[in-house]
Amino acid sequence: MRRITGNRIIVLAAGFFFVFLGICCNYYRLAVQEQTAAADFSVSSLTINAGESQGTIFDRNMIPLTNREYQLVAVAVPKPDNLEKLRSIAAEPAEFEVSVRKGTPFLFRCKSKLPESADITFFEIPERYDSNIAVHTIGYLSENSGASGIEYGYDRILRTPSGENSVTYGTDGFGNILLGEGKQVVRSGLQDTGVVTTLDKDIQEICESKDIKKGAVVVSDIMTGDILGMASYPAYDRSDIGEAITSEDSPLINRCLYSYSVGSVFKLVTACEAMNEGMDGYVMTCGGWADVFGQRFACHKYDGHGQQTMTEAMVNSCNPYFIELSKCLDVQKFRKLAFDLGFGRQTHLCAGMTASA
Fold first, then answer.
1. What's the pTM value of the predicted model, to 2 decimals?
2. Could you identify which of 244, 255, 336, 346 might form a hypothetical disulfide with 236, taking C-beta atoms 3.0 to 4.6 angstroms apart as the criterion?
3. CA distance 278 to 312
């Protein structure tokens, strides 16, 4: 009986020995592995992102059209000796208390600043829009990328990795913050760069102040062609694109850059080609309409303007005169002149915005 008991003890001891030997071998294997050894000596960290900065869209006088307002935020490490000071500046107390209870570094909106320290860092994050100024020209964002207008055309300039604002803390193996290790703060200056337009903010606001149901207002410099103001009606709210998409008034259409029938401005092209072909002395009697392949086109003066020279027809904006004059012109030369003057082709205003004539 004793021999059996002794044998069992020997077997049990041998079993413990081999288990212990296996554990020791496994620890040795882990210790000598290059990857594990490197990880053992690496510094763990925790990064809190305080928000993204984006490039600014300016008017011609370097007045910001975006990023005009800033939001004050802070990244804090909750500690018993700083909680009361942090509570006093929290813009949203309820959310602040929820974050504090987690016991880890957190981001919160502030009403004012405190002196910065190892456990608190402040950032001024630009707010993209504070109004709907030049909404069709500037455009809007979708999932933080440009979806239309200048925002879309210059997306790679306005949004880059250098827009990061963050704080990085060192942590121990249990995830505790090591304030003695210091912190790494990244502050973006991307909002100080961006895109300069030809718009004039004051003129743009005047263009947008008109009581128009549908239409467009464009103001340009007659010497340079620079667009100083450009407003399309109706406008839309960037914060509610869904409503704009479903609206029967189609506010997302930029009527300033939309394709329209050229209208009376084309009379200038007709007159120019007529002079090129030596027909500037053309005289015609306007009876109130002109016939084009059996279809009548009326003059705005129903009883007609009577006999018209080119100068008189231009002053009176007489439709029948220029219709009849165009019939006398070389079609190919006429079309080429119109194309050379920009009709029938697009004018690229930026990478994502074109105007059609």
1. 0.71
2. 244
3. 18
